[in-house]
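Good morning,

Attaching, inline, the backbone tokens for the sequence recovery test we're adding to the shared suite. The designed sequence is right after.
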């Protein structure tokens, strides 16, 4: 059996916002790839892998994935943090990649085999006004999508007021438009009314609230959009307030998807067991990798909850591959968020997931089926990249009085 001889972190994309983990073994040419990307804290994850996890794993049997996962999980005593789980997730994916290569099988075959011919996915349509949004929806329909996320611009779009029209206090904070919950509560149901008038019921829509609302207003929004039969409403309530999902479920039947920011099992366990949500949306790397997510999916299956693993525009092709292999093997799969990569980015990741129409297709090669051209990965970095100085805080919105809005 192969033993781990080294773990390397490869930073790529502009400013090194993608971190690809390479786990090497003592078997000639046998290695695995995983995703440990964190666009806001990339170097912190690298340090966890290099200083904490790699020394623990070098010399260990790569085949013992579950034991290695538990070793990493308890390695720092404090656990269930976003950065530690991302580091664990990257290594875990790479170990499954190695196991698939040793077996000569795609990872989804190791997880029980295919439950479907391909993986349905949804695209992201947007526009600064309803006219632009309708045009974008038409494009996605023409491409073959049957489920489409719709946003009036960025997150919170439809709820922003220009500063010259807002009632601002003296010496107001910030310098951009301000977010107003009541404006959002009016705009989004009106958006769905117009979309249904235009497209009928033949296309399914999702919408991402991105936690911009207070809990009671989130419930109001879910009730107001119920007549428009959403595929799901995403992240209506912030993780800090998930107890409100009980009240939401009692008052309306709009399907709920949540979990993009979840890293702690206590965040999703009760929501699933009490059947308060319809889709669990953790990111594979943020939950701790393939090993963790197959367990989440099993718990969800027992309670009639489906998966909708989160991707996001900043995510990389390796995490997408891990998500799609899980999607192929999970019976209670619901939908997969799609990523769009530039041609030069795809060129650096041979065997990347293929999209045709509204479906994703995994490589049939062993493991995750994806290979990284390290020279091309280096070329994707911006000029003068220095891994130790990159800092990219999340850009936050504010209300008129200056109060921060949860992202």
């Amino acid at each position: 059996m192969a033993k781990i001889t080294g773990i390397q972190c490869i930073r790529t994309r502009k400013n090194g916002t993608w971190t690809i983990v390479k786990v090497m073994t003592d078997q000639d040419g046998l290695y695995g790839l995983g995703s440990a990307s964190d666009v806001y804290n990339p170097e912190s994850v690298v340090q966890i892998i290099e200083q904490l996890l790699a020394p623990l794993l070098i010399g260990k049997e790569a085949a013992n994935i579950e034991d290695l996962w538990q070793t990493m999980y308890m390695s720092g005593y404090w656990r269930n943090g976003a950065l530690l789980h991302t580091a664990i997730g990257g290594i875990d994916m790479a170990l499954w990649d190695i196991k698939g290569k040793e077996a000569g099988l795609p990872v989804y075959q190791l997880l029980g085999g295919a439950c479907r011919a391909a993986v349905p996915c949804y695209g992201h349509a947007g526009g600064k006004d309803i006219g632009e949004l309708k045009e974008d929806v038409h494009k996605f329909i023409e491409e073959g999508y049957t489920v489409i996320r719709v946003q009036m611009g960025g997150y919170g779009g439809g709820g922003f007021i220009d500063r010259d029209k807002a009632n601002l206090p003296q010496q107001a904070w910030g310098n951009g438009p301000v977010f107003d919950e009541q404006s959002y509560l009016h705009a989004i149901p009106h958006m769905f009314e117009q979309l249904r008038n235009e497209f009928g019921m033949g296309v399914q829509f999702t919408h991402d609230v991105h936690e911009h609302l207070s809990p009671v207003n989130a419930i109001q929004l879910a009730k107001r959009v119920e007549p428009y039969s959403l595929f799901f409403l995403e992240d209506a309530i912030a993780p800090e307030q998930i107890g409100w999902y009980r009240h939401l479920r009692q008052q309306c039947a709009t399907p709920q998807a949540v979990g993009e920011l979840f890293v702690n099992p206590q965040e999703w366990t009760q929501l699933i067991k009490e059947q308060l949500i319809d889709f669990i949306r953790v990111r594979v790397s943020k939950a701790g990798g393939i090993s963790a997510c197959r367990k989440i999916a099993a718990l969800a299956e027992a309670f009639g909850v489906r998966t909708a693993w989160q991707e996001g525009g900043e995510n990389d092709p390796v995490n997408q591959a891990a998500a799609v292999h899980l999607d192929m093997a999970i019976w209670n799969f619901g939908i997969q968020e799609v990523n769009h990569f530039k041609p030069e980015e795809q060129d650096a990741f041979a065997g990347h997931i293929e999209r045709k129409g509204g479906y994703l297709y995994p490589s049939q090669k062993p493991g995750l089926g994806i290979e990284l051209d390290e020279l091309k990965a280096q070329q994707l970095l911006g000029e003068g990249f220095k891994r130790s100085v990159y800092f990219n805080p999340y850009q936050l919105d504010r209300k008129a009085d200056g109060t921060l809005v949860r992202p």
